[in-house]
Amino acid sequence: MAHAYEPPPALATLITRLGELAVVVGPAAAPRLDAVRDGLARALGLEARGDVPGAMQAIGGAMRELAAIAAALDPAEAAVMRAAAEQFGAAMRRGEAGEMRRTSEIMRERSGARPVEKK
């Protein structure tokens, strides 16, 4: 199945700004943030090599990990993030690129990352 999903430009920004989130969640969450960072970096690498389905799976895993981190801080926020991660996975399985973009944008907004304008 062909996928037309392109990871958002803010993905790289989110990776670089995860350290700021560490201040909020505390040092105990550092390994989990490292897992998020690794998953997002893997997604960028997979996408660059043309493995779009693999990139989408890596993004979905990172989204689920972010939701798990949020659960320790704010259960209501975590529920929203978990729902977005589940919606992303369902859209990925159906090959719905528009829905994948929409749910990844929700996660981006929730993370506080800002979109980067393409030049």
Question: Could you name the key traits of this structure?
Answer:
119 residues; mainly alpha; 5 helices
Q: Assign a percent range to the helix content.
A: over 70%
Give the topology string: H per helix, E per strand: HHHHH
The rough form would be described as: globular
Which structural category do the helix and sheet elements fall into?
Answer: mainly alpha
Number of helices: 5
Sheet with the most strands, sense and barrel status: none
| DSSP strand content | under 5%
- Report the strand count: 0
Rg, nearest Å = 13 Å
Q: Which stretches are low in confidence, meaning pLDDT under 50 for 5 or more residues running?
A: 1-5
Mean pLDDT: 78
Q: Number of domains in the coordinates?
A: 1
Question: How widely separated are the two ends?
Answer: 31 Å
What multimeric state do the chains show? single chain
Structure in words:
With 119 residues, the protein is mostly helical. The chain has one domain. The protein is built from five helices and no strands. α2 packs antiparallel against α3. The longest helix has 22 residues.
List the topology elements.
Blueprint lengths: L9 H16 L4 H19 L3 H22 L1 H20 L2 H15 L8
Short description:
This protein is an all-alpha fold and 119 residues long.
